Structures are given as C-alpha cells and as structure tokens.
Amino acid sequence: xxxxxxxxxxxxxxxxxxxxxxxxxxxxxxxxxxxxxxxxxxxxxxxxxxxxxxxxxxxxxxxxxxxxxxxxxxxxxxxxxxxxxxxxxxxxxxxxxxxxxxxxxxxxxxxxxxxxxxxxxxxxxxxxxxxxxxxxxxxxxxxxxxxxxxxxxxxxxxxxxxxxxxxxxxxxxxxxxxxxxxxxxxxxxxxxxxxxxxxxxxxxxxxxxxxxxxxxxxxxxxxxxxxxxxxxxxxxxxxxxxxxxxxxxxxxxxxxxxxxxxxxxxxxxxxxxxxxxxxxxxxxxxxxxxxxxxxxxxxxxxxxxxxxxxxxxxxxxxxxxxxxxxxxxxxxxxxxxxxxxxxxxxxxxxxxxxxxxxxxxxxxxxxxxxxxxxxxxxxxxxxxxxxxxxxxxxxxxxxxxxxxxx
Length: 406
Hints:
This protein is an alpha+beta fold. Helices cover 30% and strands 24% of the residues.
C-alpha cells in the first residue's frame, strides 16, 4: 500500500503498527527499502484503541485513516471517527471483525438469505448444532483471517479434531505474543461456487464493485486461485444490502459469497472491512487499469473516486500448494512460454529441496503465478495452464515439517 500511495503522491502523515508486529515483520527495514522517511508510531490496537490521547497530535492534520490489514480495521475506524474523518464507523468495524456479530446483524436485517450458525465453546456445542442442522458443517475462528483454523466437518467423529485445530490457531507474527481472545463459530455448510465481491463505499452508498471468482484446494477450504473482472449482475444491489445491514460508512468491503448451483440467491460467507489480500488488489489494478489503493485512500479522505465501472481486461492468479508434507520440487517456465501465457508474476516462496508442510491456510502456500488476458475467462485459463506447467510437486520426506514464511 505504501508504494501505491507514494506513486499517487498522497502524503502519509504517519504509519501506526503494533510494537511486537513492528519487530516481527521488520517494518523499519521494509519502510527504509521503500524510501519512507516519515513518522511511525507503535501502538497496541488489535482489539481496538484503548486510548485516544495520541491521536490529538493529528487533529486537523490528516484527511483520512486507512486500515491496511485485518487486525487494524477496528482501530482505524475508531481513529477516523475520533478525528472526524470518513471511515467505516466504529460499530460497523466491530461487526466486521466478529463473524458471530456479522451473522447476527445480517440475519436480523432480513434483506439477505439467512445462514444458520452458532457461537460455540466446546465440542459438545458443535455436536448439538450439527444434530440440529445436519452435516456437513463448518467450524472456524470468529476473529481470524487467511482461512486459519477452518474445518469442514462431515461426521461426528471429526468434531474433536476440528475443535482442537481451531483452538490451536497461533498468529503471533501478525498479532504479537498475546494474540487475540479465541471465539469459535460453527455454521451450516454452503454448497456452490464461491466469489468475493470488492466494493468501494462512500457515505453508505456503493459506488463501485468488482467480482472475483475463487478456487479452493481439494483437501482444505483454502483459496488456490482468483480471477477478477467478471460481470457484476446483481452484485451492486447485494453489496448495498450488506452495507445497509451493518451501517457501513466509507471505505472498501471485501465480501465472500457462495452461489448455489440451483436457482437461489447467493449467501454471504463473511466480509472484511479492508482491501482484499491474496494479490486481488494487484489483479484489480491490471484488469481495471487503476490503482485500487489510491482510490481507497481518496475515498477515505473524502475525495472523489474515478474507478471504471467495468473491467477492460482479465487477470488471474494460481497458488502452489500441497496436500502432503515433503520436499518441494518444481520447474521454472521458459521465457517464451511465460510470455505466451500472459505471465506477469511467477514467484516461489520455497527453494527446490526445501521441506514444506501441508497447505492448510493462506500462510502455508508455496508461491503463485499471475497472468493477464483479454477477458477474465482467458486469464483464468492461462493461470491454470501456467500453474500446471510449473509442475510443483512434493516428494516424501522423513521428520516433521514447519511452515516457511517468506
């Protein structure tokens, strides 16, 4: 995001980060690499701002507050509200950071198809829910990201493992040693194709949307690919209904939906009050010939935005992952073949011969290939071909494997 704002010549008054995360992610080094010489503050904010005193230095000095990652959504909204800047609104941000609260709010609104769910605290609670709605069900954390701890439970004997997995979620690199209080939600399993819809909202009105088609790995509900720029259809209406249900003010929404194969309304999976991850921002930039981060910043500073209503091209990404732990092996694409497939980016997060774990979250994927095309369909097909051509594979290894963080 910082590079995008620098390119757009938008002045950054201050970058705020959690003290432990500042060290864990070597933020100072990253900022130096980007040539950022401005002010930084280290403030604990993952559960919201406990104190607003430090914000007084910025009163009248800033036009907007931008959340960059999931765990800053509530704090950014609170800061914007305190300073009188456009933003999601503190209450809307609180709802977006809690999947239980989001279900309660959207089910109660009556404008979106309801989804059965339960706030659970034990395997027995999950069992009771499954007996009421039937299998399969989904068990997941109510306040995490990146598909961490998400399990599809298809039979009663899988419940203890699913509950243990969700309780075992650790994300100290993003949240610090103390982490976040655990809250677990179980939901009915939604059948169908999955899409995400990104929406730019200004003062409660949806002014732009993008539709992203999502792919999942067969062995785990973790994204294996995305393609952007698909027709909007009724998505503006649906995103407006979601916006109204949570009383969202201004900013970006990234909502995931399941589209049933039979004629029925899409059903909401979850929604984030920030820009999407997984390189979707980069895909949108390519497909719409824009800078989504710049448009988000302008919206949150109360300025006009000018995103194209429809995409002018297609862009897609495929991630490398594995269903088994082992030793990574792959082959690179020849330059002429990469050009033929519209490859914009090909990156591996591991080296050949590296031991890698099972891909069970967004953090344990092993690289990606990103392609463009004249349409979303063409870009999607190219990315699938390029991913297969790389031949990423795993051979068995002895001993345990640990995740590799790029």
